[in-house]
């Protein structure tokens, strides 16, 4: 059987299993084992467990559940409410300030939790009802938070960046730095669109009769600033070479648990059980996908599918920017159906040699890839953030949520174009702090 036919069969089998609702890890594992058995016989099963666990046998993987624990602690606390209210009290007089408050709160909460769905849920529960009460269109209210929630996988610390760093053997600290400025740039682009859209639709200031004193504006900051300082401290120890990602993640998780217990009095068993339950659930899901993706990649390599696809793409006699556009289209389509972690693990072995031969920086590409994954979070048919928003605001139709999200997809495309024209947006900070990549 030729690699092209084998690849087509594997792809069709994957799509059928995913369409049937099979969990991604099980779909990857089943297709991989079936492909290996059909080509090498029943004896191929002997090496399945070894290959599966080889994907997890990396000490850097310890940081994944630790960062998830850190995010779960923050997401389970009222920190999102305090963050949202603090920003609203500063921006409530600005035309469109409510939308800008929500986007800013999403960006900051995303940095704390590292989870797009958690960000949408935490900020959306408060922001959407308040925006609709003040006369903002449902589509803008829901779309701004759905898009703002995507920032969780780009602004550090990001689990997606950790998985990319492990799978491509690149520096996680440098990846975090590479995502910082683009994350802030996307936040600014989102806010710019929100401001323009409010001006275009004639949305004036919010509650003009309400006035906040300086004391009221500062009231929530003592409860929020400690969490923001943790993020800053984690980035500092990583970039300063003080600690490894695993050490920084473990320390950050412990401090976050202590802070939610002290600040929000969440020391009882119930809240703590919820935090650790959510952590275990998400961490196990990601680890299963990582192990299954390693097995899947091994099966593709054994069938010479990876080598054939890489050779076909590399053999295209096109400009390297046309090649990048082709890769981006592939990633966008994959993002419509699969979560970021699965896409990174499945595509990295194929794409990295091609990108290297084309002269693209792997840290710069990590940002491009992550923005692609962000688009997938707010586009159907999967569009996880769309369903999260619909779940917390069922009175807003999926159509309106999608309609409100589309302009922000346009801002993400603008962000990728700016990164292509000016790669130093992503590379300046890591090169400045950590020196040029070897």
From TrEMBL:
<protein>
    <recommendedName>
        <fullName>TRAP transporter large permease protein</fullName>
    </recommendedName>
</protein>
<keyword id="KW-0472">Membrane</keyword>
<comment type="similarity">
    <text>Belongs to the TRAP transporter large permease family.</text>
</comment>
<dbReference type="Pfam" id="PF06808">
    <property type="entry name" value="DctM"/>
</dbReference>
<feature type="transmembrane region" description="Helical">
    <location>
        <begin position="288"/>
        <end position="315"/>
    </location>
</feature>
<keyword id="KW-1133">Transmembrane helix</keyword>
<feature type="transmembrane region" description="Helical">
    <location>
        <begin position="172"/>
        <end position="196"/>
    </location>
</feature>
<dbReference type="InterPro" id="IPR004681">
    <property type="entry name" value="TRAP_DctM"/>
</dbReference>
<feature type="transmembrane region" description="Helical">
    <location>
        <begin position="363"/>
        <end position="388"/>
    </location>
</feature>
<comment type="subunit">
    <text>The complex comprises the extracytoplasmic solute receptor protein and the two transmembrane proteins.</text>
</comment>
<feature type="transmembrane region" description="Helical">
    <location>
        <begin position="224"/>
        <end position="242"/>
    </location>
</feature>
<dbReference type="InterPro" id="IPR010656">
    <property type="entry name" value="DctM"/>
</dbReference>
<feature type="transmembrane region" description="Helical">
    <location>
        <begin position="6"/>
        <end position="39"/>
    </location>
</feature>
<feature type="transmembrane region" description="Helical">
    <location>
        <begin position="408"/>
        <end position="429"/>
    </location>
</feature>
<dbReference type="GO" id="GO:0005886">
    <property type="term" value="C:plasma membrane"/>
</dbReference>
<keyword id="KW-0997">Cell inner membrane</keyword>
<feature type="transmembrane region" description="Helical">
    <location>
        <begin position="321"/>
        <end position="351"/>
    </location>
</feature>
<feature type="transmembrane region" description="Helical">
    <location>
        <begin position="51"/>
        <end position="79"/>
    </location>
</feature>
<keyword id="KW-0813">Transport</keyword>
<feature type="transmembrane region" description="Helical">
    <location>
        <begin position="99"/>
        <end position="124"/>
    </location>
</feature>
<keyword id="KW-1003">Cell membrane</keyword>
<feature type="domain" description="TRAP C4-dicarboxylate transport system permease DctM subunit">
    <location>
        <begin position="11"/>
        <end position="425"/>
    </location>
</feature>
<dbReference type="GO" id="GO:0022857">
    <property type="term" value="F:transmembrane transporter activity"/>
</dbReference>
<feature type="transmembrane region" description="Helical">
    <location>
        <begin position="145"/>
        <end position="166"/>
    </location>
</feature>
<feature type="transmembrane region" description="Helical">
    <location>
        <begin position="248"/>
        <end position="267"/>
    </location>
</feature>
<keyword id="KW-0812">Transmembrane</keyword>
<comment type="function">
    <text>Part of the tripartite ATP-independent periplasmic (TRAP) transport system.</text>
</comment>
